[in-house]
Design brief:
Layout: H1 2-5, H2 13-28, H3 38-58, H4 65-78, H5 85-101, H6 106-110, H7 113-126, H8 132-144, H9 148-172, H10 201-216, H11 223-246, H12 258-271, H13 275-295
Amino acid sequence: MFRLLSKESNIFSIPVYIGFLLLSVTAFNVFSLNSLSLIPTLITVAGIALGYFGFNTIGLTYQTHLPLFLYTFFVFAFFPGSIDIGIATALFTNSFLILIMTSTNDDFRRKSYLIVGAILAVNFIFLPATWPMAIFALLHILGTSNRIGLHIFRLFYGVFLIAMSYFSVMYFLGNHSWNEAYFPFTAFKFHNDYGQLLYLLPVILMMAYAIFDHFIHYNKKSPISKFKYSFMLLFFTAQLITVVLYMGDHYEYLLLLALPASIILSRFLRFTKRGWQKELGLWVIIGCVIAFKIAGYQ
């Protein structure tokens, strides 16, 4: 199966994976479709669809089917019967940010930090727990920009425009008090019950080893591969902070890790030396993800 998924994908593969994902989610939630919120579900689907296109812009997966396949299974496992509007918006905006910040058009990317700031502000309004994405954007500017001051100004100006628009609208609607939810450092929701998460332990260990293996062979990587992988690790870390600090018992937060985890694991399996290890690793991931999904219905 690994050899089949190692073949090169094309633009027509993405609608197939999206269709398969929608059918799978519908089948597992056939009795709770009436409880699905239409707008959050549509935003989530849009964000997931953009995530498929993000694999090509990031350029770390050699345009094979494997990362698309893993991404599909992760989304299927972590997508509940209904989803919060905050998580849905975060998925959409994160995918949009990846498409902008990994664009091959340098001029477009550098002039888009105003949009990036606006997107970060919208993301924070809907889900304050996504504040680590602002740190990710700042680190990205510091590491890639030749005009750091200008681009940071554009970033914060984009945040300012959305913030002023939002506060103005809320004031005229009669909301004159500050919502404590916008102080994210006071709303930690650490997870206490690890029963269902234990099914993902082999995948977590595989992820940790994949990152460790990358740094062991760091000097063998090309400069562009080092840069792109560092970008993905920063993005993954920002999402992981949100998940660890605020997930609690809401496993849909794990959807934020689906895209970076798919890239990291697909690269790890690709560069594993022995064929049987690649095949075994793939089936371990599939088995753990399906077990996690089934455990959620018990």
